[in-house]
# Entry
Amino acid sequence: MLHFRIAAFRGRDPDNPSDRKHPSNGRFCQRMEINVGGTTNTLTSVGKDNMVFITYD
# Structure
């Protein structure tokens, strides 16, 4: 069975992902965030921000 979820890549501090302070001093790393709510998790329509994450059972 296939399961589809909405995902996005975001720049986050690897030691404290919930911290959104700027400047990042070069510490931010790109990481994939999977939205379990089923809707897009972006405020813009940038192509990089929206992906489909597919899992197989």
